[in-house]
C-alpha cells in the first residue's frame, strides 16, 4: 500500500474509533513500516501475527495505538453469519417445540443448540442424578 492510501485508510479508522485511538496512529504505522523488515523479516504478517510479534518483542509501549487498532481489527466480526446461524437455529427449534415448551425453557434449549460444541463436552451425569433425586422426593411426599 502506498503512503497516501495508507494515511487515508488510517485516518478513516481513527475517525471511526476516535475514542480508542489517536491521530498518532498514522506516525506509528509509518514507523512500523520502517522497522518491519529488521524486526519481523521479509514476510508480510497477518494482523494477528503482527500483534503477537509486537507483544513478543515488547514493543507495545512504543506502538500503543497500533496495538489497540490491531486488537480492534482482530476482534471485529468479518461476517454476521454467526448471528444468522443462531437465529435460524432458534427458529427451527421454536417451530418444532413451540407447543410444548415455555419461553424460558425454549431460550435455554436454543442456547444449548447454538453452543452445541460446548454442550457436547459437558458431563451431565451429576445434573441428571440431581434432577432424578428431586423428582424422587416429590413422589414420596
From TrEMBL:
Q: Superkingdom of the source?
A: Eukaryota
Protein's UniProt name = HAT C-terminal dimerisation domain-containing protein
| Domain HAT C-terminal dimerisation residue range list | 44-115
- Species, as recorded: Amphimedon queenslandica (Sponge)
Short name of one Pfam family:
Dimer_Tnp_hAT
Q: Give this protein's Gene Ontology molecular function annotations.
A: protein dimerization activity
Gene that encodes the chain:
100638699
The lineage is: Eukaryota, Metazoa, Porifera, Demospongiae, Heteroscleromorpha
Q: What does UniProt give as the signal peptide span?
A: none
Amino acid at each position: 500500500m502506498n503512503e497516501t492510501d495508507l494515511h487515508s485508510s488510517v485516518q478513516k479508522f481513527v475517525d471511526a474509533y476516535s475514542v480508542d485511538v489517536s491521530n498518532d496512529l498514522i506516525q506509528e504505522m509509518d514507523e512500523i513500516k520502517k522497522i518491519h523488515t529488521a524486526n519481523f523479516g521479509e514476510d508480510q504478517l497477518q494482523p494477528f501475527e503482527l500483534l503477537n510479534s509486537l507483544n513478543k518483542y515488547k514493543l507495545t509501549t512504543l506502538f500503543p495505538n497500533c496495538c489497540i487498532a490491531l486488537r480492534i481489527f482482530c476482534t471485529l466480526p468479518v461476517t454476521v453469519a454467526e448471528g444468522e446461524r443462531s437465529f435460524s437455529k432458534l427458529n427451527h427449534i421454536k417451530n418444532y417445540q413451540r407447543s410444548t415448551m415455555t419461553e424460558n425453557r425454549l431460550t435455554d434449549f436454543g442456547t444449548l443448540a447454538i453452543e452445541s460444541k460446548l454442550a457436547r463436552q459437558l458431563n451431565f451425569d451429576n445434573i441428571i442424578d440431581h434432577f432424578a433425586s428431586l423428582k424422587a422426593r416429590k413422589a414420596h411426599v
